[in-house]
Backbone:
């Protein structure tokens, strides 16, 4: 039952070229940066990533993306990641864009053993009808487009069939975790992390604080240990590294005025 692995290097050592990965995080929040950096050091390539986005600035999945280690991204947000956009438009990267709620449910469904489900999100658009560019040819044309999906009517409303997602591995980051793999996420880092963890056949969690079994209030556990196979405790320095993507400040009030 003790799932603790001594190092992140050991935790990802069996990852191979072409592996599928579900990765938690949103922007810079809740991103398993330590595990991602170890994948970079391992040198694996051709990775097929399922994540809300593909890293920001020079951290997270952007480390693997910039090194040309990712061949396909299934996600819902490109944002300000210019290298992501460049590779996509140049035909160097396959990209399946999915409505954010649908992506979350596809991960959850995969983890729950649900092969497919119907949702109204995307009906009447290329999400359902097909034709979304999955890969460009580098000259402005589309080399590979999404296929049409099954649409079915329930009680007078159309719904599109979406399939659950299962991946070879999942990488997540938690604020607290015990040796049995029970995890607690902090505030907004409880975004795609529990869902990504559920989708992985082998789920690896880096935890900022490792506690002993029984120390976590069962009512406070966000992800049961049944979904986690490996736990990597972070050092205080690793746990304390919290980057800010966009720092915004307000101008000081004019002299003699109050807020």
Residues:
């Amino acid at each position: 039952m003790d799932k603790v692995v001594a190092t992140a290097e050991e935790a990802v050592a069996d990852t191979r070229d072409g592996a599928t990965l579900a990765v938690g995080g949103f922007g810079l929040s809740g991103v398993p940066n330590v595990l991602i950096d170890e994948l970079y050091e391992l040198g694996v390539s051709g990775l097929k990533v399922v994540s809300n986005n593909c890293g920001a600035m020079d951290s997270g999945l952007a480390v693997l993306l910039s090194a040309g280690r990712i061949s396909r991204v299934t996600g819902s947000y490109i944002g300000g990641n210019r290298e992501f956009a460049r590779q996509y438009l140049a035909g160097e990267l396959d990209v399946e864009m999915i409505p954010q709620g649908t992506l979350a449910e596809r991960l959850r469904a995969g983890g729950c053993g649900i092969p497919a489900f119907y949702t109204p999100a995307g009906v009447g658009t290329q999400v359902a009808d097909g034709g979304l560019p999955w890969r460009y040819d580098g000259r402005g044309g589309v080399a590979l487009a999404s296929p049409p999906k099954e649409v079915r009517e329930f009680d007078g409303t159309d719904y599109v069939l979406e399939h659950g997602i299962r991946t070879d591995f999942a990488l997540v980051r938690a604020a607290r975790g015990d040796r049995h793999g029970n995890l607690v996420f902090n505030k907004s880092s409880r975004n795609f992390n529990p869902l990504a963890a559920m989708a992985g056949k082998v789920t690896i969690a880096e935890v900022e604080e490792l506690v002993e079994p029984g120390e976590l209030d069962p009512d406070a556990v966000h992800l049961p240990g049944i979904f986690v196979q490996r736990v990597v405790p972070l050092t205080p320095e690793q746990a304390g590294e919290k980057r800010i993507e966009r720092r915004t400040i307000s101008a000081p009030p004019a002299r003699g005025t109050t807020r």
